Amino acid sequence: MLHRFANPTRFLRIASIAQPWIAWTTVLFAGTGLYLGLFSSPADYQQSESVRIMYVHVPAAWMAMFCYTCMAIAAGVGLIWKHPLADVATKATAPVGACFTFLALFTGSLWGKPMWGTWWVWDARLTSMLVLLFLYLGYIALVNAFDDPARGTKSSSILVLVGFVNVPIIKFSVDWWNTLHQPASVMKMGGPSIDSSMLWPLLLMAVAFKTYYIWVLLVRIRAEIIANKIRILRLRQVHGQL
Amino acid sequence: MDTIKNFIDMSGYGSYVWPSYLVTAGVMIVMLVASQRLLKANIAKVEALENITKEDLE
Q1: In Å, how far is A3's CA from the nearest CA of chain B?
Q2: Helices H, strands E: what count in chain A?
Q3: Which CATH architecture describes the domain A20-185+193-241?
Q4: Residue A111 three-state SS
Q5: Any CB–CB contact under 8 A between B28 and chain A?
Q6: Amino acid A187: pLDDT
Q7: Which residue of A has its CA nearest to B24?
Q8: What are the DSSP calls for chain B, one per residue?
Q9: Are A226 and B46 a contacting pair at CB < 8 A?
Q10: How close is the nearest chain B Cα to the Cα of A122, in Å?
């Protein structure tokens, strides 16, 4: 099943059909989520209106970890089974994941200042998220650092797999160490502790962020497949001239 | 008018809430537009290269 979609030509065909549907799904979920988050959901009894930062901060943080997990799976598949699309998917995900991580840190800082009284603190959750941003940037630098793209892909895939240890550290940092950051209130044992009037806009925004990721991923994978074709055509031209 | 002012003020947290939304929207739009441009540029490059290859063959 997976091997069928790993064929780049078939993937390009499916991606061009799916892309407009995914784009409209993103617009629909983001629009509804923003309306509910900004107008319909109540202010928090302790955090007042600042709680509305949650509707962009939490989905960005979830996506930062989700993108890295996707990269680790794709890097593993690329290293072990040499799937033609796996390495392309890893490379296409990295800039999007880096953007989500930056947004989680930036919006978290803006939420932290009025609630904690500081923009930044070197606690486990914040520091491990910063490490995640450096892992994304390290991957992007490494994958483009070799003249031979295959060597760059292999080295950077190993980096992604080693760096994956950071993902469970981020998730459980609020349980393992004393931190200013609050513990999980949605994805936890016993179900969410957040009220449904805030949970719904949060979940809608989370879906919008996920479909946005798929949208950008399809565009970037298509761009990468064509970039590989350009490399092959250029090599053929060079060999033809020799 | 007061309703709009109150909405923008966000009980004094507007200077934290709105930059969060604006920067998030900005970064996501820039990432999407940059990706679309990269795709278009690559399509243009590959078409140009294919035309050169066809001319060489002819």
Answers
A1: 24
A2: 8, 0
A3: Up-down Bundle (1.20)
A4: helix
A5: yes
A6: 67
A7: A103
A8: -HHHHHHHHGGGTHHHHHHHHHHHHHHHHHHHHHHHHHHHHHHHHHHHHHHHHHHHH-
A9: yes
A10: 21
- Is B53 near chain A, with CB under 8 Å? yes
Is the pLDDT score of B57 beyond 70? no
B49 contacts in A (CB within 8 Å)?
Answer: 230, 233-234, 237
Query: In the predicted model, is pLDDT for residue A50 greater than 80?
Result: yes
> Are A61 and A90 spatial neighbours (Cβ–Cβ below 8 Å)?
no
User: B17 vs A52: CB contact, 8 Å cut-off?
Assistant: yes
A125–B contact, CB cutoff 8 A = no
Of B14, B28, B42, the CB nearest to A227: B42
CB A105 within 8 A of CB A129: yes
**Closest residue, chain A, to B9 (C-alpha):** A49
- pLDDT higher than 60, residue A207: yes
Q: Supply φ then ψ for residue A13, to 5 degrees.
A: -65, -50
Confirm or reject contact between B46 and chain A (CB < 8 A).
yes
Q: Report the distance separating Cα A236 and Cα B4, nearest Å.
A: 62
- How many Cβ atoms from other residues are within 10 Å of residue A132's Cβ? 26
pLDDT tens, residue by residue, A73-122: 999 999 998 887 899 999 999 999 999 999 999 999 999 999 989 999 99
ipTM computed for the complex: 0.89
Which tokens is A163 given? 């760096």
Interval A148-172: pLDDT, tens = 888 999 999 999 999 999 999 998 8
Task: Say whether residue B36 is in contact with chain A using an 8 A CB cutoff.
Answer: yes
The residue type found at A199 is L
Chosen from A220, A221, A228 to mutate, greatest number of chain B CBs within 10 A: A220
What are B35's two structure tokens?
């990706």
